[in-house]
Amino acid sequence: MPTDLWAPYTPDEKQPWDLRRVVHLHRRAAFAGTWDELQRDLKDGPEKAVARLVKGTANLQTGHEFYATAALLFDAAQTQGEIGRLKAGWFYRFLFGPHPLLEKLTLLWHDHFATANAKVDDVTLMRRQNDTLRKHATGKFADLLNAAVREPALLIYLDAQTNRKGRANENLGRELLELFTLGVGHYSEADVKGAARALTGWSVEESQFVEVAERHDDGEKTILGQTSKFNGTNLLELLLKQPAIAERIVGKLAQQFFGVNGLSADAAQQLAAGLRERDLNIGWAVETILKSKLFFDAANIRNRVLGPVEFVVGTARLLELFDPAPSTLAMADWSARIGQDLFDPPNVGGWPTGKNWIHSRSLIARSNYAAALVAGPNSGRSEPYDPAALSKKHGFGTKPNDLLTYHHRLLFGSDPSAETMTRLGGAAPRPMVTALLSSPNAQLG
Amino acid sequence: MFTRRSFVQSSSLLALSSVPLFVAQSASAAAPNKDGRVLVIVELDGGNDALNTIVPHADEQYAKLRPKLKLDPKRLVKLTDSLGLHSALRPLDVLFQAGQLAAIPGVGYPNPQRSHFEGMAVWHTAKFDAEDRRGYGWLGRALDPTQGNLFSVGTEVPTALRGRRSSAVAFNRLEDVLLSDPHSARLGVGPESTDGLLSFVRRQEVDAHTAAEKLAKLTGDSSGSIYPQTALADRLKTVSRLLKADIGARVFYTQQSGYDTHSQQSFAHASRLGEFAGAVAAFFADLKQSKLLERVTLMAFSEFGRTVAENGSAGTDHGTAGAMFVAGPTVAGGVVGTMPSLTDLDKGEPKMTTDFRSVYASLLEEWMGFAPEPELLKLSRPRLFKV
Prior knowledge:
heterodimer, A: 445 residues, mainly alpha, two-stranded antiparallel ribbon, 24 helices, B: 387 residues, alpha/beta, Alkaline Phosphatase, subunit A, nine-stranded mixed β-sheet, three-stranded antiparallel β-sheet
């Protein structure tokens, strides 16, 4: 029996349950914690903190009649056919939803089954896809995959309608093998051709997924060494049996919960093996990660670049900008400027990751967003942020060093260094907060 | 073997200023030295249909492969007796007539990738090993020794521009690279860190702030040249503004998307090519008027060509060898390289006749004055520049 690399985390002297780890958990598994949430979890310990995130009861600040409001916002976007409103509606869910982990995973699957409205040009279908991804985000991967590849938005994005018997269009077949399931190196060009033939007849009519029998090529195909009269459904069954699929899921989850190359090959393999034994249950893998020693290991803290959505939402939550909240339309726009335009990933491969999020334009946009939140109007808030009021509310003083200490702990879970005290201690409160949020450190989490 | 030019002057300046200041004064001179030369890349995203770009209309096999999509020979822009450009590329004829446009058919590499991502990764890195393809890009590496600056006019920094020491900026609008609170932003940077990732972010921040400061000094440029109202033309216009402001980048990168024409491609492909040609022609007219022409070469490529045979939905699927364009003051104009045969095929697709890396080698050494990496030096090159 090899060592269980996914042993649960139990605090000890070396790896104590401290504010740093609570901040880490809320950064990775939610959109940052407010001071009260962090303090509650610090007191209650890791088990309860993780359980709340998994159940979707971690956020103290949720929207009034959240589910009804969230649905109303999506309905309105759909009725008006405005993708900007759909983006804003999702930001409402990020900012005020009770289940940030579910929203994060929905975003991760949006990235995985990347579909751009720039091509689909149909808000109703984009909304439908978003609902589907959320519904299956923590379920069995088979359910997620089967639902996701039958979503009209994705089928349109990948030209399924033109893939017909005798005139195969490889777009869907190729991305299904390369991006959605197996990954490069686990299939051949002949497999792509076979997959494209198996998928002939899959199409969209009147905004619904349909299988058009007369367009389907029902001849024999050889795919991944198996010869059969595959159709789309059989093809998905075949793909779901491939060992490589579990590795791909682990890789995707690692993108969210670990830094780039932050997960060893051994640990990834063990988790993939666990997934295979559990029918590719995504929720099981997420929970295993969040409870693990590996996740809370000091080496896994602050080793990951925050994505634009994480930065935009997290910053607003940290500063408790709930009433009045920033305009969610503005938040969606800021996120796009920082590099993540929801419902419009740059290509079928989804958004960049890690260091690729960091370049001059994105860093300038991050700093400008911080300045906009602090000042108010450019983030759609009528009033500026008041650093002293928040500091005082949570039992800190209002002298410059107290304000710095409060915000430093809130952001990083640690006290400012002597150098930071010297550099920022003399700044006026609002510029100090903008400086802290623009700092290299604040881009990680 | 050390043929690299000396960059003493540029490396003694700030990391951003890879173009020495004296170039600003000599920009309008007839023959600036190579340090002032700029390379502009246009990536045609999605896999441009090479066969309907540089068209072998005299080859009877062409019409057989393209029953629906074949182009009328009479409408093509004549290159040679047997080859012509798609009629939508007519705006480029001015450059071609001036001997400043090279059309290169059959450009590829051994064992071509038909995946957008793998194909693009190969073109961006000029590496075939899967591990290397995740690393630094061919232009980023070329600018490493001088810690040069690369600008991507678009939403992201492409792999091609990523280097170890050189730095790349990406933006859509000039306002996107101006800081609204520069004082606070600078205050946040802090000291060097020993942590690799943090140190990376910090370096990028320092570069970002320096670039923002430079761009803040740019005033609105309303000079005469007329550009079409298209996304690519807007980007090339921005490149031109940055060149006029002597922003100090030696490489500018832009993309035009929409070439993944799996179905009903005739109209879409013509529109894309028309947008491309219109933007490039306006850009060169602007450069000429601003006396910047001598400093700029433009190269256009796509991750692969499309299947030479059309598919059943009046489109084409992912193919192999593609077409490249290189335009500039010292380019050896005309058709460069050889049109591949349409009958001697490999897995249904033409065999490449020019290795794209040899074009890179020419651009780097003969235009930019950089020493190409040893593996690029080994390749035989087409005659892309006048001696």
